[in-house]
Specification:
Number of strands: 23
Low-confidence stretches: none
Helix content: 25-40%
Distance between the termini: 69 Å
Length: 459
């Protein structure tokens, strides 16, 4: 069996791993990167997650009512595939161009401390390294429901290539992934029904924000059934019957396709982590400390597989933590993250940073709050210009220091505005300075002038 010895072995092409591999390779370290699928060069984000789904959301938003749903969806999927193909090729080239980096196609499994065996097409390669970085990510988890492996039941990856286009779609799960796809497919022309187990959407969010999200999706044509779960998926070719348990008569639903948006699980089952002495938690995620070190000496875990927040930008920051450990003074840790923003690309985007009013109340903090529907913000005409006035903007501010503690931004351009607010929070810019700022017009940012002028004590 062929042997390969390197300084650093990266298992998986995710954002953190590929960025780390490039940085170390350019610094002169010998690096091997192993990926089991040539369709995943560059990681989940550019191939099956962030980028392709947002491309589909964008195309769905552009569809007019008279446009044929099947033809429009087919064209959107082709554009999606062309985009991911270009990004995948560029990501592969970015590492291939680094002489110190060796790219290996195949499935890796540990055979000992910091040593793996890679199998591809009947060929085997033994790779050992001083440092190993596990970067295998997560994958959609199917619910333990009869028929969940049926021909008309999809996950967030497979539904992107569903054929034929589903005229009726049932989404199981009322979390942000389910809502993103519900809105997307409703705008493509599907009749979408969301089965949400909770009594309302997004219980971790403020009630007014959750209600605004639901209303925007209802206006897009989505139907919600709260307090309802799927109990079985019965193949009734060419359709599927979703048996449900919920309030009232809990009528079963017939659909052309079902999306199971019921969470994700770590891709660790085939790694044989025990052979390397790497511990996992009860969900299968790799246990790491603040420096992203695992229980095994010289083995790190970055990205979604380590059980942290499942965002590409967190994976990117993971690479900085490990790079600090391997080439710097090791002072950077996961604890350094402050005011980390996030956005869900429903229409309009829903962005959050820091705490919301509900969390402030639960913490017993002395705060001022402000919340205003987008349609009522006179000083912000941009949503009216682009004909998207759904949503609201809310802030939580420390009553004594005037420090911004959090913001809920459900509005056009929220994915950009949240970054400004997050930077202000990290830099200690007060709510008053944001309120009195001079912003371009017409822009979403100028909502800060009006919304923050309405701060009041939390009731």
């Amino acid at each position: 069996m062929e042997q390969l010895q390197v300084d650093v072995l990266v298992i998986g092409w995710g954002k953190g791993g590929k960025t780390l591999a490039g940085a170390l390779g350019r610094a002169g370290r010998s690096v091997a990167v192993v990926e089991r699928s040539n369709r995943m060069y560059g990681g989940s984000c550019i191939n099956i997650a962030c980028v392709p789904t947002k491309a589909l959301v964008h195309r769905a938003e552009q569809r007019r009512f008279a446009d044929d749903a099947q033809a429009w969806f087919d064209a959107a999927v082709q554009e999606r595939d062309d985009l991911t193909g270009r990004l995948r090729a560029r990501n592969h080239a970015m590492l291939k161009e680094v002489d110190a980096v060796t790219l290996i196609d195949g499935a890796a499994r540990f055979v000992g401390p910091r040593e793996v065996e890679v199998t591809a097409g009947g060929e085997r390669l033994r790779v050992s390294a001083e440092t190993v970085v596990v970067n295998t990510g997560t994958e959609p988890a199917r619910p333990p429901v009869a028929g969940a492996d049926g021909p008309h039941v999809y996950d967030s990856t497979s539904l992107q290539h569903v054929s034929p286009f589903p005229r009726r779609l049932v989404v199981v799960g009322g979390g942000f992934v389910g809502l993103e796809f519900a809105g997307m497919f409703a705008r493509f022309g599907s009749q979408v029904t969301v089965l949400n187990r909770g009594e309302r959407l997004l219980p971790e969010e403020d009630a007014d924000a959750a209600a605004a999200v639901e209303q925007s999706l209802v206006d897009a044509g989505v139907t919600f059934r709260h307090g309802t779960s799927a109990t079985a998926f019965v193949d009734a070719r060419p359709t599927v019957v979703v048996q449900v348990d919920g309030p009232g008569e809990a009528t079963d639903l017939e659909a052309d396709a079902v999306l199971c948006a019921t969470g994700r699980r770590p891709v660790t089952a085939d790694l044989d982590l025990s052979a390397a002495g790497v511990d996992t938690d009860e969900r299968g995620y790799i246990v790491v400390d603040d420096h992203l070190r695992t229980s095994a000496d010289g083995v790190y875990a970055v990205g979604d597989v380590n059980g942290g927040p499942q965002f590409t930008f967190i994976s990117l920051d993971d690479h900085r933590v490990v790079l600090s450990a391997l080439t710097g003074d090791g002072s950077r840790t996961a604890k350094d993250r402050v005011a980390v923003p996030r956005t869900t690309f429903i229409t309009p985007p829903f962005a959050r940073v820091g705490i919301n009013a509900t969390q402030a109340r639960d913490q017993g903090r002395s705060v001022l709050v402000a919340s205003k529907p987008v349609a009522d913000i006179a000083a912000m005409p941009r949503p009216k210009i682009v004909e998207e006035t759904h949503g609201l903007i809310g802030f939580v501010v420390d009553a004594e220091s005037d420090e911004v503690l959090g913001a809920t931004l459900f509005c056009t351009d929220a994915q950009e505005l949240v970054n400004l607010v997050a930077l202000a929070m990290r830099a200690g810019v007060t709510a008053s300075r944001l309120r009195d700022g001079i912003w371009t017009h017409p822009s979403t940012t100028e909502a800060l002038n009006e919304v923050l002028a309405g701060l009041r004590p939390l009731a």
